[in-house]
Amino acid sequence: MQVTEINAEGLKRDFKVVVPAGHLETKMQAKLAEIARTVAMPGFRPGKVPMAIVRKKYGPAVMGEILEGAVNEGTGKALTDNALRPAMQPKVEITTYAEGGDLEFSVAVEVLPEITIMDLSTLALSRDKATAPDSEVDETLARIAERNESSEPVKRAAKDGDVAVIDFVGKKDGVAFPGGTGEGYSLKLGSNTFIPGFEAQLVGKKAGAEVLVEVTFPAEYGNDDLAGKPATFDVTIKEVRAPKPAEIDDELAKTVGLESLDALKTAIRDEIGRSLDGISRMRLKRTLLDALAAAHDFPIPPTMFEQEFEHIWKQVEEDKAAGRQDPSDAGKSDDELKAEYKALSERRVRLGLLLAEIGRVNNITVTQDDLNRGIMAEARNYPGQEHMVLQYYQKNQEALENLRAPLYEEKVIDFIIEMAKVTDTEISVEDLRKDPDEAPAADAAPAKPKKKAAAKKKTAE
């Protein structure tokens, strides 16, 4: 087998591979002899079928396997002998082959660039942090109390926020319609649970009142017989109940599964803290990636860049057609947008290659425990369906690999943060939650173009 490099331009390498006919024939005879030892055909004892007949029957299929093996072997030899690390699957094209002749094919491959990683310990980063304020804990407690509120009967007229216990009969053209009747229904006024205009007509009425409610069903109502049509409801108010928020005490804590109010406050503060820590990490990661992008410049494989851009541009066009265009793109021509998104694509590919190289040289891997934690984290996003999520990842190898990539990236980011000099800066919760594109810190590294619409599913931003 002869492998000849015929082109070396940038990150592209092209090879010509020639596999002699004699080499192919030797493999062919060996495989046919193996088949002949066990094949059984009418009129012949097992293992006694003449080779000419075996070759005629099995030769084409066997040669197909041999050619495939020769292509794989030649491609591997081209990469191994030249110590190449392919960035993409090599492209192979058979240029010459006829039965009994040599096999000749070309191999085109784009290789990974040589990357010189900066001294990560020289990175100086600022991490914005914020502490959950007492006011936010109190607001969360108030919302929990509101969700657990009860009500008590009152003798006054109903007002927004009260619960009216009603019997009702809905009629269209004076005739009751199916599904329009209810008894003892507790309707919170102002909740917009019923047809628009229904609840407002009960405000100011007392228990015992009989009210003729006149409404028009919305044009988009699910029942075609009622959509856009006027209707009346004979309503009897049986009781008016005023909301009674739950007391913020140990009993409230017990309704959510905690033993005391102090424990509930701690749980709320911890949850807010985790959310703030997530924002803090996101901002730190962005600053880190900006610093890495500024410190590294190396060529990127053209096909990786083209595929990344095509993926982004396709999403941009889909978002534009659906009316979801990024506001920062408004008024720009396609040429202007393509230039911006090509810059973003180049940044992403370069950062992706850089992070992968940092992980490779530092032996960073995603373990089974890492995957298990990632799967559990995904499962927690679907309360009540955790078992289905676990089964999905157990049965779907592609989904598991899609989960592995962001986990790997986060481990590499963690490694870099450990190496870097990170200074924590305490800021307000409001400032932490601001979009850094709208309110950049004075000492922040230059941010990349903001392209959320096309970037929402990608990593290595």
From TrEMBL:
<dbReference type="GO" id="GO:0051083">
    <property type="term" value="P:'de novo' cotranslational protein folding"/>
</dbReference>
<feature type="compositionally biased region" description="Basic residues">
    <location>
        <begin position="448"/>
        <end position="461"/>
    </location>
</feature>
<keyword id="KW-0413">Isomerase</keyword>
<keyword id="KW-0132">Cell division</keyword>
<dbReference type="InterPro" id="IPR008880">
    <property type="entry name" value="Trigger_fac_C"/>
</dbReference>
<dbReference type="InterPro" id="IPR001179">
    <property type="entry name" value="PPIase_FKBP_dom"/>
</dbReference>
<dbReference type="Pfam" id="PF00254">
    <property type="entry name" value="FKBP_C"/>
</dbReference>
<dbReference type="InterPro" id="IPR046357">
    <property type="entry name" value="PPIase_dom_sf"/>
</dbReference>
<keyword id="KW-0697">Rotamase</keyword>
<dbReference type="GO" id="GO:0051301">
    <property type="term" value="P:cell division"/>
</dbReference>
<dbReference type="GO" id="GO:0015031">
    <property type="term" value="P:protein transport"/>
</dbReference>
<dbReference type="GO" id="GO:0043335">
    <property type="term" value="P:protein unfolding"/>
</dbReference>
<feature type="region of interest" description="Disordered">
    <location>
        <begin position="427"/>
        <end position="461"/>
    </location>
</feature>
<protein>
    <recommendedName>
        <fullName>Trigger factor</fullName>
        <ecNumber>5.2.1.8</ecNumber>
    </recommendedName>
</protein>
<dbReference type="GO" id="GO:0005737">
    <property type="term" value="C:cytoplasm"/>
</dbReference>
<dbReference type="GO" id="GO:0044183">
    <property type="term" value="F:protein folding chaperone"/>
</dbReference>
<dbReference type="Pfam" id="PF05698">
    <property type="entry name" value="Trigger_C"/>
</dbReference>
<keyword id="KW-0143">Chaperone</keyword>
<dbReference type="InterPro" id="IPR036611">
    <property type="entry name" value="Trigger_fac_ribosome-bd_sf"/>
</dbReference>
<dbReference type="InterPro" id="IPR037041">
    <property type="entry name" value="Trigger_fac_C_sf"/>
</dbReference>
<dbReference type="GO" id="GO:0003755">
    <property type="term" value="F:peptidyl-prolyl cis-trans isomerase activity"/>
</dbReference>
<comment type="function">
    <text>Involved in protein export. Acts as a chaperone by maintaining the newly synthesized protein in an open conformation. Functions as a peptidyl-prolyl cis-trans isomerase.</text>
</comment>
<feature type="domain" description="PPIase FKBP-type">
    <location>
        <begin position="161"/>
        <end position="222"/>
    </location>
</feature>
<dbReference type="InterPro" id="IPR027304">
    <property type="entry name" value="Trigger_fact/SurA_dom_sf"/>
</dbReference>
<keyword id="KW-0131">Cell cycle</keyword>
<comment type="similarity">
    <text>Belongs to the FKBP-type PPIase family. Tig subfamily.</text>
</comment>
<dbReference type="Pfam" id="PF05697">
    <property type="entry name" value="Trigger_N"/>
</dbReference>
<keyword id="KW-0963">Cytoplasm</keyword>
<dbReference type="GO" id="GO:0043022">
    <property type="term" value="F:ribosome binding"/>
</dbReference>
<dbReference type="InterPro" id="IPR008881">
    <property type="entry name" value="Trigger_fac_ribosome-bd_bac"/>
</dbReference>
<dbReference type="InterPro" id="IPR005215">
    <property type="entry name" value="Trig_fac"/>
</dbReference>
